[in-house]
Design a protein that fits this description.
- The protein has helices at residues 10-26, 47-60, 64-67, 70-79, 87-95, 109-120, 135-142, 169-178, 192-208, 247-263, 283-292; strands at residues 30-33, 40-42, 83-85, 101-105, 128-131, 150-154, 182-189, 214-221, 237-243, 268-269, 272-273, 276-279.
- With 293 residues, the protein is α/β, with parallel strands linked by helices.
- The chain has one domain (10-292): Rossmann fold (3-Layer(aba) Sandwich), CATH 3.40.50.150.
- The N and C termini lie far apart (47 Å).
- Bound molecules: S-adenosylmethionine.
- Residues 3-4, 15, 35-37, 86-87, 105-108, 111, 134-136, 155-157 line the site of S-adenosylmethionine.
Length: 293
């Protein structure tokens, strides 16, 4: 059984929309994905997917910017045959064979088999390698052998939970960023308390590592509460943390996030308010907290 069941939900929209555009702008030589899951999924039209990819495709039909996005074009075509493309497929399709290689990590062998099978059926696909192991240690070990032109897509759920060797996905981001590699890290949270704890831990760790230049964009449901979970469309808030990207990519991330708020303004998830707001890690606020300690 493949465990990733969140495909096509609302947080995938932000993550995958941004990923496709960033890859096209940054043109990396090597693409590494830490938590790949499958390349392609059969849609089941759940309320969560309705609030996610179906809402996006409907609304994007009225919006020229979204219609021109790679994500819209790739998913619109794939969804016509009832399939959602996960990040490995999107990355392979955007990068084609302009990239030297794509390295996919996952604990699930079946997910990696799905990626290999998808790649075999493409007319044009980059060379791929798969790694069936824990990617925290796997990627940390691989980093010194990778060129600076590598792009890391770090997509776990928990980014600051240590593995059995005490390493976290934030350590992976920090290690790769210090080597000059471009990174995109996705994280999620269910309450405002979780968000605040995560924001504090991320900004403190980046500060300690001397990484000051990063971009962050979060989309959060207005229905989110301080410490209780009122509904579950997959996740109530998610963020993207980007390091070493060009100004063009950083601006695109902010622009697309704000535009997504626009197309979700009247959205509903079941009987709940499905509207979103945009936020970012408040670096100044974190500095103030530190000064008061
Ligand atoms: C968040 S999803 C990936 C979604 C995918 N990147 C996308 O955007 O379409 C989670 C995947 O991470 C894998 N995973 C969880 N822990 C892992 C670990 N320590 N190392 C490698 N893969 C892991 C799971 O097996 C699952 O397939």
């Amino acid at each position: 059984m493949v465990t990733y069941t969140h495909f096509g939900k609302q947080p995938d929209v932000l993550k995958h929309l941004v990923l496709c555009e960033v890859l096209q702008i940054e043109k990396p030589q090597i693409y590494v994905e830490t938590n790949s899951a499958c390349a392609i999924y059969t849609m089941v039209h759940t309320p969560e997917q309705k609030y996610g990819i179906y809402h996006f495709l409907n609304e994007a039909n009225e919006d020229a910017t979204f219609q021109n996005s790679l994500y819209y074009q790739l998913e619109n075509e794939s969804m016509a045959s009832g399939n959602y493309l996960g990040s490995p497929a999107l990355a392979m399709k955007v990068l084609n064979n302009d990239v030297k290689g794509c390295l996919f990590f996952d604990l699930e062998k079946r997910a990696l088999d799905n990626i290999k099978s998808f790649a075999r059926h493409q007319a044009v696909a980059p060379p791929i390698r798969t790694f069936n192991c824990d990617s925290t240690d796997g990627v940390l070990k691989l980093l010194p052998s990778l060129p600076k032109s590598t792009f890391l897509h770090i997509d776990p759920y928990e980014i600051d939970k240590p593995n059995s060797n005490g390493h976290t996905y934030l350590d992976v981001l920090i290690g790769a960023t210090k080597l000059g590699m471009k990174c995109l890290l996705w994280y999620g949270f269910m309450t405002i308390n979780d968000k605040q704890a995560l924001n504090k831990s991320v900004s403190e760790k980046l500060d300690k590592a001397g990484i000051k230049d990063y971009a962050c964009s979060e989309l959060i449901m207005n229905a989110i509460k301080k410490d209780t979970i009122v509904c579950n469309p997959g996740i109530l808030g998610s963020g993207i943390l980007a390091t070493n990207l060009s100004q063009k990519s950083n601006s695109m991330i902010q622009d697309y996030s704000k535009k997504l708020v626009g197309i979700y303004k009247d959205a509903r998830y079941k009987e709940f308010d499905g509207s979103l707001y945009h936020d970012t890690i408040n670096k100044k606020q974190n500095i103030k907290i530190k000064r008061h300690l």
